[in-house]
Amino acid sequence: MLNLPNCPKCHSEYTYEDGSLFVCPECAYEWSADLDADNNEDNKMIKDANGNPLADGDTVTIIKDLKVKGSSSILKIGTKVKNIRLVDGDHDIDCKIDGFGAMKLKSEFVKKV
């Protein structure tokens, strides 16, 4: 019998190979045989404009005037944003900004304080 890896999601030992993918019948998770590529994607480090790694709870400042979509307001350069939360997607920072409310920002427009 082949020595197949356990499921990385639920750790089930009943995995099987389907073409170039491994499949877990218990949680229906599929992953590629190249585990290094999957691990790099899962552990993707979100960095600010200067290349510093960001984490949940960090404080950042905005490095460019940003137009607020759906409003005539502008987020000014130097605006401090406290207690950020990192999320998946194009806008990878979720935060609350005083005077504006809940916002999603791109990490390329902030720098860590």
UniProtKB/TrEMBL annotation:
SUPFAM superfamilies registered for this protein in UniProt: Prokaryotic SH3-related domain, Zinc beta-ribbon
Highest taxon listed in the record's lineage: Bacteria
Domain Protein YjdM C-terminal: 46-113
Domain Protein YjdM N-terminal: 4-32
NCBIfam families given in the database record: phnA (TIGR00686)
Family: Belongs to the YjdM family.
Protein name: Zinc ribbon domain-containing protein YjdM
The organism of origin for this protein: Cytobacillus mangrovibacter
